[in-house]
Design brief:
Layout (H helix, E strand, L loop, with lengths): L3 E8 L4 E4 L2 E4 L6 H4 L3 H4 L1 E10 L6 H15 L6 E5 L5 H12 L6 E4 L12 H11 L7 E5 L2 E4 L4 E2 L8 E2 L7 E3 L3 E3 L20 E5 L6 H9 L6 E6 L14 H9 L4 E5 L12 H8 L3 E2 L5 H14 L3 H9 L15
Parallel strand pairs: 1-4, 1-5, 5-6, 6-7, 13-14, 14-15, 15-16
Antiparallel strand pairs: 2-3, 7-8, 8-11, 9-10, 11-12
Helix pairs in contact: 3-4, 4-9, 6-7
Length: about 350
């Protein structure tokens, strides 16, 4: 008997069609089996259209809608796993958010999408759908992204190329599954766990700021002082977490303002490879003294999603800090988990 897989459809390029030079969403969800009949050889498919949106329009409320649908499916004994079709632009954000929202998983949840629409002759959608459906039948109980003949840990990925068909990268974590001539499942796949009740608490009022020469600290301070504004801040710092610290350009007063307002600040690196180590340079060390949280080797996508969810769940700053510094879903390595 073939395994049964649920496909949750959310839209994205995979579901689009061309109107002149512009891609736009079709009127309704695609009939996957008619367009990719090979899927029926892998699993019995059950399709659940959830919404039909360009992923650039997705918000944290949509993460929760996807999480509800997936959580309900994971509780079913008849399903081997779940596939989520999704636009590529924000797929890494959604996959990261679901990893934190759902917690340990008993079955795989595989996101996929395409750089070219499914209806195109030269599309990557067919192979990605085949790989994702196969991935949903494997012993890979994680939220993951199937793209370019690889299955990557969702909370470790970033969209790295806007034009290539292998659009996603996971610089700090090797693929969970490589789909070449053979299917190779890596030994670092996380263990399965019992499904927990879905905790939907989330605080979306989080700001990400990329540090750059000329960034005026007053802009960050102004955002922090806005009445109903920022509840959490992610700083994309240089290298290992270095920040401007010279008079007139120092970001440390902004971090002190954040600390005074009980706004947590997570520092991640602008570099795709490597990790934050705040004590290495004086700018980072000053940030740590001002209360900044070392983001280790988290991607900015994972850091933002984790901060939103942590703010929703934890009132005590110590509990929130512990959550942010912990490896919750494989999003950061223990070596980089410096609590400061």
């Amino acid at each position: 008997m073939k395994p049964r897989v649920l496909v949750v459809q959310t839209g994205g390029t995979l579901a689009m069609g061309a109107h002149g030079a512009t891609l736009s969403l079709s009127a309704g969800p695609r009939d996957l089996l008619s367009l990719v009949p090979q899927l029926a050889e892998i699993a019995d498919l059950e399709v659940q259209p959830l919404f039909n949106l360009d992923s650039g329009d997705l918000q944290p409320a949509h993460w929760l809608a996807i999480a509800r649908a997936v959580h309900a499916a994971l509780g079913r004994d008849d399903l081997a796993g779940v596939v989520v079709t999704h636009g590529t632009d924000t797929m890494a954000y959604s996959a990261s958010a679901l990893a934190f929202l759902l917690g340990p998983l008993p079955k795989p949840v595989i996101f996929t999408g395409a750089q070219r629409p499914l209806a195109d002759v030269r599309t990557d959608a067919r192979s990605n759908l085949v790989d994702a459906t196969l991935g949903a039948t494997l012993a890979v109980p994680e939220v993951a992204i199937a793209f370019g003949s690889q299955i990557l840990r969702g909370c470790r990925t970033m969209k790295a190329d806007a034009w290539a068909l292998d659009a996603f990268a996971s610089p700090a974590c090797r693929p969970l599954v490589e789909l070449g001539i053979d299917v190779s499942v890596a030994p670092h796949v996380r263990r399965s766990g019992a499904l927990r009740p879905l905790d939907e608490r989330i605080e979306p009022r989080v700001l990400a700021v990329r540090v750059f020469p000329g960034l005026d600290p007053r802009i960050v301070i102004g955002a922090l002082r806005t009445g109903e504004g920022v509840r959490g801040l992610v700083l994309e710092a240089y290298g290992t977490g270095n920040l401007p610290n010279a008079a007139g350009s120092s970001l440390i007063p902004a971090l002190e303002e954040a600390a005074a307002r009980a706004v947590p600040v997570v520092v991640v690196s602008q570099c795709p490879r490597g990790h934050v180590e705040l004590a290495r340079y004086e700018g980072g060390a000053a940030a740590a003294r001002a209360g900044a949280i070392d983001g280790g080797d988290m991607t900015v996508e994972a850091a933002l999603a984790k901060l939103m969810i942590g703010l929703g769940r934890f009132d005590r700053r110590a509990d929130l800090r512990a959550f942010l510094c912990a490896d919750v879903a494989g999003e950061r390595t223990a070596l980089a988990a410096v609590t400061g």
